[in-house]
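Why predict the complex rather than its parts? Because the way molecules touch one another can change local conformation, and only a joint prediction can capture that. The input here totals 484 residues.
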Amino acid sequence: MGRATTIPFGPQHAAFLEPLNVTLTLEEEKVVGAVLNQGYNHRGMEHALSLDYRKSQYISERVCGICSFHHSTAYCQGLESIYGIDVPERGRLIRTIMMECQRLTSHLLALGHIAESVGYENLFMQCFRERELVMTLVNRISGNRVHYSMNVAGGVKRDISPEGLKDIQATMSRLRPRLRELHRVFSRDRTLSKRTKGIGVLSNQAAREWGNVGPVSRASGIPRDIRQDGFAAYSMVKFSPIVREEGDCYARMMVRMDECLQSMDIIEQCLPLIKDGPVAIQMKGHPKGEAYSRVEAPRGELVYFIRANGKTALERIKLRTPALMNVASLLAMLPGCQLADVPTITVSVDPCICCTDR
Amino acid sequence: MNEAGPKIERNACLEVRKRTKEMVEAGARMIAIVALEREDGSIELIYSFDRQPGIVDFRFQILPEWEVDSVADIFTGALTLEREVVDLFGLKYKGIPPGLFLEAGKSPVAPLRRRPAPAKGGDEDG
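Output of the joint prediction:
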């Protein structure tokens, strides 16, 4: 057994898109201990969001650039719950379509990132090429690539025209064979399998203890998907959570890949359900009361708690982001792995540090 | 919403372990610890759980100088949630160190607590 060595992994590291530090204790190439240091991106978003509820629907999108629409949906749903109003069906369907488009962009980013972490540069570029189809689609629909700015408390402020609906259908038709090809590569490539199968295993028990959510928990056999609760228009479409049992990097990767195909199914189910009608209703007065709001963001369950006391400033707004729970569970995945696998394991939880630190 | 909030009770700091254990044994998953400062300066703590089909919580109110029992040995994921409350509200949890987001000596202390009102005629920004 070699002498224990401690090395910093991050906060600036080629494997990370955002700053996160993992202090690793190694015996030769084997990781025997890990300590997480985070907070490099802490921006005090909960304070900013509480200052004026009318502006917070825009600020909430700025918590994260990858699941921005999910943040604003969770925020708007919370306010709608306090006001006790139901968003019109057309507005809920548009929200659902946009959320699934964003899940596609997020998962394709995560998949590309995993491919890059094992040195598979051309697969990384292929993921980003297909992702660009969805990015340009949401740009045509909303006018924006990242912060769609479509949500308002009460519905959405931008309708989708009949041409826009045809555009979505055409894009899905173009995307489907491309994603099937990506699925074939991710599931069958031997190099990718060797670098991900049996690596960074998170057992079902550990996932329950750490409170993991989203694709990370579903890859460890926990069949929980908040979309099943039926928020937005999810009660109007048919789908089942994608669950795997292995709990390793491969399972986390394949859950996301399967969920990309599922997102397209959900979008295509929503399109014929859209009927003429309003997309939003107006709310009057300042909110008073409290509410929990949850959505299934690409990384898992995103929780907002809002307490309002009838003034423009909110008494409290609390965000529990999925990445906060998933990043912490790296401490259960890293010990025992090889140093060369640390980038793949950390990337396989899709660590969004903007969400984690807020 | 309970405007009066729960009563300020010292026992609550210890009771939290019992209540959390009951929830976890019933199959619930802790999803958040919400802390908020009330008008009288006391802190309301809300422990929220996912117990299908919805969210259930228990809540209690404490004085900011009291030490709360950690539940991280009952539900491992609570460690991060407790550390967040320690940093942002300056509460003390038994055996839980600060420093999840903030850096001792460099970052603002308990940034989500209300600042004391400035003296009359004084300049808030100094």
